[in-house]
Amino acid sequence: MKRAKTIMLAVLAVLVVALGAAAGLLGYRISGLRRYQEQLSLGEKYLAELDYENAEICFQKAIEINEKRVASYVRLSVVYVKQQRYSEAREMLEKAAEYADPKGEESVDWIEQQIETVEKEEEKQNPGSLQDAGGQDKEGQEPQKEGQQAEELFTAYLQNTLIPQKGQANLDPQEGWMYSQSDSWYNPLGITSALLEDLDGDGDLEMLVIAIEDPQDPGDYYPDGKDLTGAVYEIVQGEVQQAAFTVLQEYNPLMGEYKPHTFLLPQADQIDLYVSLVEAENRKYLFCQRYELGAAFADGSTQDYWMMYYQDGELKMRASFTQPGMGSSEFQFMGYLLENGQEVSGELLYSEAYGEPGKYSTFDEALKAFFGPLGIETAFTDHMTSILTDESQETKILSYHTGVKERSSDYRSSKFGLDATDYTGLGQRLEGAQPDSQAAGQPSQEPETGEELTAAQAGEAVAAYYNENYQPQGKYVVFESETTEEAGAYKVLVRYQPGEGEVGTANRLMCAVTVDKTTGEAPDDLGNSWNVRD
């Protein structure tokens, strides 16, 4: 009996020691988890404050505490992207993939998508950075020239067709006085931005053109208002063609046929407009934001946020966070979601109207609850600032601001100012393109016998031949940017610009001509042949 008690006491002692050790280990793990979360939270705080140095230190400490947790690697990669340290960002994401849960929120597939996003951002900031010294891309394949050719075609189309048709909006800082609604201190009409991007993910480059235009269907309320429009152009069989066109305006079915057309109207007391391209839901969205303080109201304002995407030749609405009415008496916000242009849900998200409470108690909560599930990070600060908070997710296209700077002593007139920015480099793109000498009306330079032809001389001679021999109602043109050199000859593309009253696509491709640089022989792909030196 005494022996049995001794054995039992020994067993209990072993259990006590084991439980103590387990408790100590559990306490250590809990302490480690707490320290990890503290460093992660502190790093998030520094990141939000744009203090990247301290954010990096915190996330690195979190990794030291627990190297198998994915979040610290992902957040550290964000810090590196903000500092344009792209190779280090990819390294962190690749490390995160080693510990990622295949089915978790930050899965391997999700991390691979983030790596692709980092690489795209690096290529955008430093073109050619993903190619090695031998001119090959990361996969070891020869870089394709289709993108460069598409850029040249789009640039030529902008310069020779769209700018002559629509004009180029003057976004330079401006100021002017207005006495009445009929006064106009500046003319904002024209193209503001032209973004080259694979908008629908089909591997081909499209061109998104944003413009300010007179409305095709003017409303009665603001007859002097302007439309903000968006058009998408694609390249089909070597020709630039318009694939989609729409007025960039929020989805608001409760407004019915009411069309104020107040976009970019200088008479409004204040207008703040942002247009961006945002990546979310594995799709590229055109994200528009507008705030407007209307001069027609004593205390009225409108603010709207909406998302559109390009697919199957259409610009389609995805989401609209908008006011169903105008003026502070109807300060309510509806949230609409759409699929393939059809409304699938609509609800009152925020309201200050008496007796009609919204779903959320604050405007900021409503914004985050609406756009968050769509993969868009937002935070409302003031009307002069974009609500988008994740810069790595956003490609800026246009920002536009007008507002009252000064009022006359009798308050009968106001001085307005314009401050706008195009982020697509439209001006630089047009400056870098060489205008076609035929389209510009410059005389052809006759090549001297015995001298090797230049690309410009070959193009000018070909255009002159077609215009002289076929005497068109419009004219044949050649764009030097489209002329390529191959095996001692130039390949020249001949396009036709319809004359007044003629039907047809502008700059329609007619044929290709091969011009021998030395002899001047010029056979085309229609079976004709001549010598450009004759």
Automatic annotation (TrEMBL):
Positions with biased composition (Polar residues): 435-447
Residue segments, region Disordered: 119-148, 428-454
Composition skew (Basic and acidic residues), residue ranges: 135-145
Record-linked Gene3D superfamilies: Tetratricopeptide repeat domain (1.25.40.10)
Segments passing through the bilayer: none
Spans of repeat TPR: 36-69, 70-103
SMART domains: TPR (SM00028)
Annotated signal sequence range: none
Record InterPro entries: TPR-like_helical_dom_sf, TPR_rpt
PROSITE patterns given in the database record: TPR
Keywords (A to Z) from UniProt: TPR repeat
The keyword Protease is assigned to this record: no
Protein name from the UniProt record: Tetratricopeptide repeat protein
Species, as recorded: Candidatus Egerieimonas intestinavium
